[in-house]
Design goal:
The complex is a heterotrimer of chains A (325), B (395) and C (253).
Chain A lengths: L3 E4 L2 E2 L2 E2 L2 H16 L5 E7 L15 E6 L8 H15 L3 E5 L2 H14 L3 E5 L1 E5 L2 E8 L4 E7 L4 E5 L14 E5 L8 E8 L12 E5 L9 H11 L2 E5 L1 H5 L20 E5 L5 H7 L4 E6 L6 H4 L2 E4 L2 H17 L1
Chain B lengths: L18 H28 L7 H7 L17 H14 L1 H21 L2 H12 L5 E4 L15 E4 L3 E12 L6 E7 L9 E7 L5 E5 L11 E12 L11 H35 L1 E2 L2 E2 L4 H30 L4 H25 L11 H13 L4 H13 L6
Parallel strand pairs in B: 1-4
Antiparallel strand pairs in B: 2-3, 3-7, 4-5, 6-7, 8-9
Helix pairs in contact in B: 1-3, 3-4, 3-6, 4-5, 4-6, 6-7, 6-8, 6-9, 7-8, 8-9, 8-10
Chain C lengths: L1 E6 L1 E3 L7 E2 L7 E2 L6 E3 L1 H17 L3 E8 L3 H11 L3 E6 L7 H13 L5 E5 L10 H9 L3 E10 L3 E8 L2 E8 L2 E5 L11 H7 L4 E5 L7 E7 L8 E5 L4 H10 L5
Parallel strand pairs in C: 1-6, 1-8, 6-7, 7-13, 8-12, 9-12
Antiparallel strand pairs in C: 2-5, 3-4, 9-10, 10-11
Classes of the chains: A alpha/beta (325), B alpha+beta (395), C alpha/beta (253).
Chain lengths: 325, 395, 253
């Protein structure tokens, strides 16, 4: 029986959206491995951490490891806990997220389990009994397919890629032991971004601005458009980040974040290769630019040529109208 | 906008360079891309040399880079020096002119004709950019014929007094020191020409920028006037000896300029190619059309020829066998190449090609100055003619 | 202060990448005409080491890489920036398994007595984003990854790293491993004098003690081409049509 461990994520005691994606991916692998393997979701947090609702996407069991020191990310404790559970459970695969935390945590788990790690995975399959992971390399220009030859197969999936599916399972919650070794690093605090600001790498809709905005003061127009969509984050091209108009955390592109939103709206962005590398896997791309020959129009599904200062406010208005109706 | 420049290398010239030569080229290439290109358009339109870049250029060792380490210089070979000029010109000819003047026309004469004290005093400060220099040879009525100059230096009790005027002097208005060439003897006697290190703050020395330039706008080009400028005895460059001394300096600068021509040509080619791939007309990228392909083929041919030409020239210089006539051939050929590449790139870019956003027309305008200065194209033609036939077709 | 910086020679991702290599099996890239550079994220690591040494007024910076002979040029770039000496852990091929690479680096670093080990957060070719953290875990050292800002104290430090919706502030003590994110500092250009000086700095070459490689590259493929899109119209007049398409055709609204 090939069971899969899904290591989900929480913040402030609440499960993060990516947890549903992790469980979905784990379910996908468990089903592909055959033999009716089960999916165990592992929740790590402070006492009282949320654990409900993971059954809906395919978790047979939900294992909760609690410790007072686990309220914030505790790298050493989290890694030791995951490793202990993975060893105890004899899993065929362990699925994590390649989120900010996951990118830090998964390599530690890999060493503790002494298995390789496939990071930033965008597709999973099972071939010849082996877990096969596909991931983008060379700034997304090439897809690499890896055969995982150790057990458990440890993978970290890219957020916003494994669309959560409904696969109702029991999701039976039980407590497990937390491993709490001496902490070698301590997360003192998390300085929260201003309220209601979605992260560019996780938002389903990203509205991105480039040099065409002509100045930092005009980004309020995009912030308004983001509000009109309701669940959007504001992104930025490298040029405007380098110019100091927007923070680095919003940069989309090769040296910024790679995003896979459902909808990506590129405003006043010409579409340099480095930028495209960061967003070309978005489901739908819209481009607004005054230059009809801008390279962005080659990758956009829909484009409007014209003055963004006239188009964007109109777009915000229209989106609000349609969403309200 | 063109993507980041990654070189033009149809014949694998990269493999003929040493690791450190490549590393030098890469430092300058990256610096030009990241520090110079973002500011050059504004400087060019304003007609202002981007002086704020001097400290970083100095810190990285761009000035007098082929002079010895003991004087605070990088001690590079001449191929590496050439690569610096190539990459700077890819950025802008005006900025490369600054480096050429500082290195080949100010630091070099001090190194070649100066006393040990002069070398120890001036070279490190010029290398570090603390002092900026200019080269005063050309006069209002004596360009191609510098031997005819009328600036004089007369010996006095304590030193020398200089009188005269110089024109088209790069860095003139910002320089701290000027290397002034003047006749110490009869006005018809070029063998009496000597070089002097003249502090520009000296009484009687004025420098004024020449206005209205339509070329080399990101460079300071000045008139110098010397009215009874008194300098101490030790201002004389003791080993300077006749017209051949400033000509030796020019040979140094012209060598660098031959490399620069390749740089400007590469910049224009890279921009034209990137544009041709993206610009769509009649439903296809213009790179699909025969005439544009011919333009690009001609540019690439010229660049490839130019690259191999200066690489061999650099190896000859390092071996100590390079002749001024060989430099004439390279300067004449590569600068002409750059003029043509710039013009053809400008045409390929269509209407967009007249905008400052695209570099072709700026290079095109700049290269007209480079065609004329440091020995006009025509002068180098006659130098070669004499070298070939043994007959001087000029008096 | 003894600092180790782990670096990697990577293709310049500005150049066009073609699948080829791997003995014709299509599991590598075609290296002809590809320019190789010091991994940009490793530049932040080298710069941070240089700044630490400049601040302390003394110290030694050792640059370590796993690779073939050509990787010496990459080490020399770091030496030209100001590092003191290099170590090439020679391997014919770099395994796709980051853990195997981390084991080779850890074996070299173990007895080095380093106060600080710096790496880039990821290498721009395979973007595995793991070797630095794995090295720390193998050595039992504190580790902060993707540090965008570091405040150094006496034997301790506080780093900031971006997380979704915020900035995580992490405290740790030295010796430690830190992987560097863009924005940590501004890497200096290798000065021309530095390039010349680097020629004389020593690079030790020894065989890499790679761990077993337990991932195999099955294939490299190109991502699917996006279906061609279209320009919906011009100016604000086209907005209504666009929104309608987003709703009915793309179904994203």
């Amino acid at each position: 029986m090939a069971n899969v461990l899904a290591v989900v994520e929480q913040r402030g005691g609440k499960l993060r959206k990516v947890s549903r994606e992790i469980v979905t991916a784990a379910r996908q692998v468990a089903d592909a491995l055959g033999g009716s393997g089960s999916v165990d979701a592992l929740v790590i947090g402070a006492p009282g951490v949320e654990s409900a609702g993971l059954g809906a996407h395919g978790a047979d069991r939900v294992l909760v490891a609690e410790d007072a020191s686990f309220g914030r990310y505790a790298p050493d404790g989290y890694a030791a806990t995951i490793a202990a559970q993975a060893k105890a459970g004899g899993y065929a695969a362990v699925v994590m997220a390649a989120s900010a935390t996951g990118k830090d945590l998964a390599p530690r788990v890999a060493v503790q389990l002494d298995v390789p790690l496939a990071a930033d995975v965008t597709a999973l399959a099972v071939e010849g009994g082996k877990v096969v992971a596909t991931r983008p390399i060379y700034a997304g220009k090439v897809l690499q397919t890896l055969e995982m030859n150790a057990t458990p197969a440890l993978v970290a999936v890219r957020p916003n890629t494994f669309t959560p599916v409904d696969a109702a399972k029991a999701g039976q919650v039980s407590k497990v032991q937390a491993a709490v070794p001496a902490a070698r690093v301590t997360v003192r605090e998390v300085k929260e971004a201003p309220q209601g600001v979605l992260d560019v790498a996780e938002a389903p809709v990203v509205v991105s601005g480039g040099r065409g905005l002509k100045g930092p003061e005009h980004f309020v127009m995009l912030e308004d458009l983001a509000r009109a969509f309701g669940n959007a984050a504001v992104g930025a091209s490298r040029a405007v980040v380098d110019a100091g108009w927007r923070p680095h955390g919003e940069q989309v592109g090769q040296t910024g974040k790679t995003v896979s939103p459902t909808l990506y709206v590129a405003v006043g962005i010409s579409g340099a290769i480095q930028h495209l590398a960061g967003m070309r896997t978005a489901k739908t791309i819209v481009a607004i630019n005054k230059d009809k020959d801008a390279p962005i129009f080659k990758v956009a599904d829909y484009g409007i040529v014209g003055d963004l200062f006239e188009i964007v406010p109109k777009l915000a208005e229209e989106v609000r109208r349609v969403r309200a109706s | 906008m063109a993507p980041r420049f990654t070189g033009v290398d149809f014949y694998g010239v990269e493999g003929l360079l040493g690791e450190d030569e490549r590393a030098v080229r890469d430092t300058v290439r990256d610096w030009v891309e990241e520090q110079l290109l973002p500011v050059i358009n504004e400087s060019y339109l304003e007609g202002r040399f981007p002086k704020q870049l001097v400290p970083q250029m100095a810190e990285l060792g761009f000035f007098g880079a082929n002079l010895p380490e003991e004087y605070g210089c990088a001690g590079l070979n001449n191929v590496a020096y050439g690569l610096i000029m190539q990459e700077l010109e890819r950025g802008d000819s005006g900025v490369r002119s600054f480096a050429s003047v500082q290195g080949a026309l100010v630091m070099y004469p001090i190194y070649a004709f100066g006393s040990e004290e002069q070398k120890q005093h001036y070279l490190p400060q010029l290398a570090s950019g603390e002092l900026i220099g200019c080269f005063g040879l050309t006069e209002p009525d004596f360009g191609s014929n510098p031997a005819g100059m009328i600036t004089t230096a007369r010996e006095t009790k304590d030193g020398w007094v200089l009188n005269g005027a110089k024109m088209w002097i790069t860095n003139g208005s910002t320089a701290d020191v000027a290397i002034i060439w003047a006749k110490t003897g009869d006005s018809k006697d070029p063998s009496s020409i000597r070089g002097f290190i003249v502090p520009t703050k000296s009484k009687g020395f004025t420098a004024k920028d020449q206005k209205g330039k339509l070329s080399l706008r990101a460079s300071d080009t000045s008139e110098l006037v010397l009215e009874n400028v008194q300098v101490p005895r030790d201002a004389l460059l003791p080993k300077s000896d006749g017209i051949k001394s400033p000509l030796m300096c020019l040979t140094q600068a012209r060598y660098g300029i031959a490399w620069g021509g390749v740089g400007a040509a590469m910049a224009c080619y890279h921009e034209a190619l990137s544009y041709a791939r993206q610009r769509v007309m009649f439903g296809k990228p213009i790179a699909s059309y025969q005439i544009q392909q011919e333009r690009l083929a001609d540019m690439l041919t010229g660049i490839t020829q130019g690259q191999l030409l200066v690489l061999q020239l650099g190896r000859l210089k390092d071996a100590g066998t390079m002749t001024p006539q060989q430099v004439s051939l390279a300067k004449r050929s590569n600068v002409n190449l750059a003029c043509e590449c710039a013009r053809e790139a400008r045409r390929l870019l269509g209407a967009n090609g007249i905008l400052i956003e695209y570099s072709a027309m700026r290079h095109m305008a700049n290269m007209e100055s480079v065609y004329t200065y440091e020995g006009t194209h025509d002068m180098h033609t006659l130098i070669l003619g004499e070298a070939i036939t043994g007959i001087a077709a000029y008096s | 202060m003894k600092i180790a910086v782990c670096v990697k020679r990577v293709p310049d991702t500005e150049t066009r990448i073609k699948i080829g290599g791997g003995g014709g099996s299509g599991t590598g890239i075609d290296e002809a005409g590809v320019k190789f550079i010091l991994n940009p994220y490793d530049e932040f690591a080298v710069e941070e080491a240089l700044q630490r040494k400049d601040k302390a007024g003394t110290g030694e910076i050792v640059v370590i890489t796993v690779g073939g002979d050509a990787a010496q040029e990459t080490i020399r770039t770091a030496l030209a920036m100001g590092a003191d000496r290099g170590v090439l852990l020679k391997a014919d091929a770099i395994p796709a398994d980051g853990l195997a690479v981390a084991k080779a680096l850890a074996a070299e670093l173990k007895a080095g007595g380093y106060d600080l080990i710096l790496c880039g957060k990821l290498a721009v070719d395979d973007a595995n984003h793991q070797v630095g953290v794995m090295v720390a875990e193998l050595l039992g050292l504190p580790c902060v990854s993707s540090a965008a800002k570091i405040e150094w104290g006496e034997g301790t430090a506080v780093a900031e790293r971006e997380v979704e919706g915020g900035i995580e502030v992490v405290a740790f003590a030295l010796p430690a491993v830190v992987t560097c994110e863009k924005g940590l500092n501004t890497p200096r250009y290798p000065a021309l004098k530095g390039i010349m000086a680097a020629k004389k700095k020593p690079i030790e070459v020894k065989p890499a003690q790679l761990g077993p490689a337990r991932v195999a590259v099955r294939s490299l493929t190109l991502p699917p081409e996006r279906k061609e899109g279209r320009i919906v119209g011009e100016g604000p007049a086209a907005v209504a049509e666009l929104v309608k398409l987003l709703q009915t055709e793309a179904k994203v609204l």
